[in-house]
Design a protein that fits this description.
3 domains; 9 helices; single chain; alpha+beta; five-stranded mixed β-sheet; Hypothetical upf0131 protein ytfp; Nucleoside Triphosphate Pyrophosphohydrolase
Length: about 375
């Protein structure tokens, strides 16, 4: 049996149970881990780092080979490594999972309760996906996918705020009978296959069906608008969808858009993406809609906003982050010219059409208040 020291998020009993099993979580004993600290208050899985004089609330667990392998898999996925012979309070040797490098916090301790309140749900959903790869995908191949894993976990948390069902059926998801589920592709993106039976609208259960679904993150989309000058900003970039379809012009006009990162609200994403893609500091956001883009085959969910901003220049510009391989051109144009793109068909991205039509309906109100 190996003696393991678990600190930081891994010491949170619900997460430990999800990774190592309920029996392991119940058997873990609380201990103080000296000269170690959790680095930083932000992030779903902040690193646990050596820190002279530090003190960390931890759990001590005697683990067999399988539990050790499961914990090692998860730890590697979140950037931790097994450090042997770390001395615990009773003077015996153990193994701790620590970050290979990192900065100790300047002061204060890590608050597990506060972390769990903000990040607990995302951490548990992310752990489900990470542990689903155990025995199939090496942990080293998971670390670079962690941002998308956390993004998908964030989307699952946001999905719990369901839209009303005043007209549609309120049949709950719990009544869907999942017979089998497997991951067909697990790279930066994820595709799953389900074998299931779902309730019928007139009662009873349907026949067994096989369905494939693209598992995506949520995204925030923003149409920047200057009501005083009556101008909008669009971004232009290469897109794989039109290219794979065979479109001879795979560069498209779109709103500003980006993935909702772990722990962000869609509104925070909207403001961040406007700064990154267009260099804009928005004065205000107006919610347009929140909707699935292709519910028959994708979990992708859009949070659409109008962003009020100053757009003084009628010209092309550049935007995007080189670190994310973004090659983006911005266009500032009059409202009428933007609406003409719908009539000509050059605006061929659904959210852009939707957002321009919404702006057309609300434009008078917005200009009167400018």
């Amino acid at each position: 049996m190996a003696r393991l020291i678990l600190a930081g998020p891994l010491a949170w009993p619900p997460l430990l149970a999800r990774v190592a099993g309920a029996a392991a979580a119940e058997a873990a004993q609380r201990v103080d881990l000296p000269d170690v600290a959790v680095a930083g208050e932000e992030g779903c899985f902040p690193p646990v780092v050596p820190a002279a004089g530090g003190q960390c609330d931890a759990r001590l667990l005697a683990a067999g080979p399988e539990v050790f392998a499961r914990l090692s898999h998860f730890a590697a996925a979140i950037g931790l490594v097994a450090v042997p012979k770390h001395i615990v309070a009773d003077g015996a040797a153990a193994v701790a999972f620590l970050a290979p490098s990192g900065d100790a916090p300047p002061g204060g301790g890590w608050d597990m309760a506060a972390w769990a309140q903000r990040w607990g749900g995302i951490a548990l959903d992310a752990a489900d996906e990470i542990m689903g790869y155990w025995g199939h995908v090496g942990a080293g191949d998971l670390s670079w996918r962690l941002p998308m894993i956390l993004g998908r976990a964030t989307a699952r948390q946001l999905a719990r705020n369901a839209a009303p069902s005043r007209l549609r059926s309120d049949i709950p998801a719990e009544q869907v009978e999942v017979i089998a589920r497997r991951t067909l592709h697990a790279g930066y993106f994820l595709t799953r296959e389900h074998v299931l039976r779902h309730p019928l609208l007139d009662g009873g259960m349907g026949e067994e069906v096989r369905r494939e679904v693209f598992v995506a993150t949520d995204a925030a989309l923003v149409l920047p608008y200057d009501p005083a000058r009556d101008r909008v900003l669009l971004v232009e970039q290469f897109r794989m969808g039109p290219f794979e379809r065979g479109d001879p012009r795979p560069f498209v006009l779109e709103p500003v858009a980006g993935r909702v990162d772990a722990g962000e609200t869609p509104e925070e994403t909207a403001r961040r993406e406007c700064a990154e893609e267009a260099g804009l500091d928005l004065r205000a956001l107006e919610h347009i809609s929140s909707h699935y883009c292709s519910p028959g085959c994708s979990t992708e969910f859009y949070h659409c906003y109008l962003g009020l901003a100053d757009l003084p220049e009628l010209e092309r510009g550049r935007g995007g982050l080189a670190a994310e391989h973004e090659d983006i051109r911005t266009h500032v144009l009059p409202f009428d010219a933007a609406m003409a793109l719908i009539a000509s068909g050059e605006a061929n991205i659904g959210p852009l059409v939707l957002m321009l039509l919404w702006l057309g309906a609300e434009r008078g109100r917005l200009r009167a208040a400018a």
